[in-house]
Amino acid sequence: MAVDTGFHSLVELLARHEERQDQKDRALAKAVESKCLDMVEVLVQNGAQLQTVPLEDVLLTWDREMMQFFLDRGADLVTGNPFMIAFHNKVQRALRPFVDYKKARPEFADALQAQADRALRYFAGRPT
Hints:
The chain is mainly α.
């Protein structure tokens, strides 16, 4: 509820003193859904686990700063094909992080390209 209300200091206080990891992680998912980067930052600083939010959920926010926040902190680029899902949903803001991380993380280049290829095949097969 604190995330829903945007009550920053309450979110920080609750996250700092919450012992149940699942509560912190659920609040993080809610903050992503609400596109509240400041809340995401507070929750991660106070122990919420970034990896519990699928990258596709982050990409589907269309929020480039939030995308960058997750990617810079090691979000999973491959599991669940997050970029393919973003491209299927025409999330244009996912293009720059895709290109940047494909160059910066060559060990993921093939897996990332496969996601782009799947999205292209999807659109190529659709009638115009």
